[in-house]
Write a structure and sequence with these properties.
By secondary structure, the chain is α/β, with parallel strands linked by helices. The protein has a single domain, classed as NAD(P)-binding Rossmann-like Domain (Rossmann fold, 3-Layer(aba) Sandwich). The protein has a seven-stranded parallel β-sheet, with helices on both faces. Helix 7 links the parallel strand 6 and strand 7. Helix 1 crosses helix 7, helix 3 packs parallel to helix 5 and helix 5 packs parallel to helix 6. The chain is globular. Bound molecules: NADP nicotinamide-adenine-dinucleotide phosphate (NAP). The site of NADP nicotinamide-adenine-dinucleotide phosphate has 30 residues, from helix 1, strand 2 and helix 5.
């Protein structure tokens, strides 16, 4: 994809991977449009990157997606790339009884349903373009369920499956379907966790986004840093090994949430 001459919608572009995409894409010269829920974060993004246009929009709400589509395509008919990046990740103990059913599937509503609905809403517009792309952000966790974040794991496995199916459906169109598959990355995603990830195992966000941009420019259907290649390979030849390794964290998490003093 020629990014310099593209108009790109980045959902969840006010923090972490999305914000770094905004930084690097504007540097290349692309026209970037950003969404998010928090108006202060949107204003701050606009202040840092004045050429960017921001829209307050919650991807888990179908009405917000319809409104976003109407506003963005009216203002930017040249829009040709959608990056479904907005996401959330919580650590959840399924035996914790205080969680409400309505709230339990938030990651599905945002990460998975948000991606599917936004894709469906923008597809008729993108398909008319000579060159267009949809980039879905999944996770290495799509290949090795992380027991401490079961709903997130389900949402990202879903994004991976959806992206593969969509790619086949669109193979005879001008819309490329790409999947960015990050490993652990240092962002605000983990801010409220009681169990903090090991910083030594987390990738710097600028490095990840450099790889992402190169991957989009080269139309790589799966954009994955070396660590993710390794995770995908090990998950195939030794199913369960990485999941069991990650599961060691769950007991620590359970102890911290059941006995906050310990
Ligand atoms: N960081 C990692 O280790 C990692 C690893 C693999 C995959 N990923 C994926 O990468 C993507 C970006 O994550 P990140 O690490 O950059 O997280 P982040 O720093 O927490 O940023 C998340 C962004 O998504 C937005 N967002 C969250 N819920 C939203 C909603 N309902 N509607 C619209 N925007 C929403 C946030 O803004 P508001 O809160 O203002 O809405 C924010 O701009 C996610 O899909 C995540 O699952 C991250």
């Amino acid at each position: 994809m020629d990014l310099k001459n593209s108009t790109i919608l980045v959902t969840g572009g006010t923090s972490g991977i999305g914000l770094e995409l905004v930084r690097q894409l504007t540097e290349i010269g692309a026209q970037v449009i950003v969404t998010g829920r928090n108006s202060t974060a949107l204003n701050e993004t606009k202040r840092r990157f004045p050429s960017v246009h921001t829209f307050q929009s919650d991807i888990s709400k179908p009405d917000n997606i319809r409104q976003l589509y109407n506003d963005v395509t009216a203002m930017f008919p040249e829009l040709n790339i959608l990056i479904n990046n907005a996401g959330e990740m919580r650590l959840i103990d399924m035996q914790e009884t205080s969680m409400q059913l309505e709230d339990l599937t938030r990651e599905i509503d945002i990460n998975l349903s948000g991606t599917i609905r936004t894709t469906h809403q923008f597809l008729p517009h993108l398909i008319k373009k000579q060159s267009a792309a949809i980039v879905n952000v999944s996770s290495a966790i799509a290949f090795m369920a992380y027991s401490t974040a079961p709903v997130y794991s389900a949402s990202k496995a879903g994004v991976h499956a959806f992206t593969m199916a969509l790619r086949l459906q669109l193979k005879d169109t001008g819309v490329k379907v790409l999947e960015l598959i990050p490993p652990g990355v240092k962002t605000n995603l983990q801010n409220n966790w009681v169990l903090q990830p090991n910083p030594g195992q987390m990738m710097d966000v600028d490095k990840l986004v450099k790889i992402a941009i190169r991957g989009i420019q080269n139309d790589n259907s799966e954009i994955k840093p070396t660590l993710v290649r390794l995770i995908k390979f090990v998950s195939r030849i030794m199913p369960g090994t990485l999941m069991n390794y990650g599961h060691r964290e769950f007991e620590k998490f359970r102890q911290l949430t059941r006995n906050p003093e310990s």
